[in-house]
Hints:
Elements: H1 4-17, H2 23-35, H3 39-44, H4 52-66, H5 71-75, E1 77-80, E2 83-86, H6 99-110, E3 116-122, H7 128-139, H8 141-144, E4 150-157, H9 160-172, E5 178-181, E6 192-197, E7 202-203, H10 217-223, E8 232-233, H11 239-248, E9 252-261, H12 267-275, E10 280-285, E11 291-297
Parallel strand pairs: 3-4, 3-6, 4-5, 6-9, 7-8
Antiparallel strand pairs: 1-2, 9-11, 10-11
Helix pairs in contact: 1-2, 1-4, 2-4, 6-7
Amino acid sequence: MKKYQEIKKQIIGDLKTAGISSAEIDAQILLEFVTKKSREFLLSHPEYELSAKEYKSILKLVDRRKSIYPIAYLTGHKEFFALDFLVTPDVLIPRPETEQLVEIALDFLKARSCKLAAILDVGTGSGNIIISIAKFITDNPVRFDPIGSKWIFSASDNSAKALTVAKKNAKKHNVKITFIKSDLFENIKGKFGLIVANLPYVPIEKCNRFSPIESNQLHFQEIDFEPQNAIFAGDNGAEIIKRFLLDAKKYINNNGLILAELDPRNADDILVFTTDLYSSAEIISDFSGQKRLLKVLT
């Protein structure tokens, strides 16, 4: 049997040789996953010995990671907004930049004074956005229910497999969400005070030509393993978002909020399109300065 410290060094070396820039953190994640031990335990017990079965399992995972297979799919987990989400190749892997959308949504909801707050997440995927919103609200009732507001959480996706993953995540985090199989608003009924969406937005014609600012070779190769119909769209990546914005007018309440994640390459075009539909729209940059979110107040 080999010791944790020795195996970690071996894995890091193998991953670096394969060109994996995140070799150190990947090695740690895989070791935690296989041994089912916490990071704190492993770091404080460098002499911990892995069983022969564990060693064999981690070598198989490392081989797959060397081929750029996403580590979130290897472990079946991804952290988002300080919550652990189940992920499979049927859903996009949650990205850190999307957490900003959740933060803006929560700030808006804290400022609301109505007694009914219906929230819809269109294109929910793993459910990471709507579940993060619902979990934060239900875990902080005093901050969000000063006058006994009733919260209704709904989410849609056109993929039945994605909805299966989202339902498991909702159950895992003990939040009540109505999931609907729908192409955008096709099967949606009622109106909402907040509508959020992280829809396909990457330009099809540029899917093989990511700029160094917006991506890197490793990231490009990883997204090859994700559901392509959840990533790419026509009209320079704006096609589906424009359809969403057109239809959303019928489903958003007065004094409501629409939030959508964008590709920096089509953000300006979508903003021009949106200002013809709504009186108040703006682009919000992410923490790296990229135009990332569309905010529409109705």
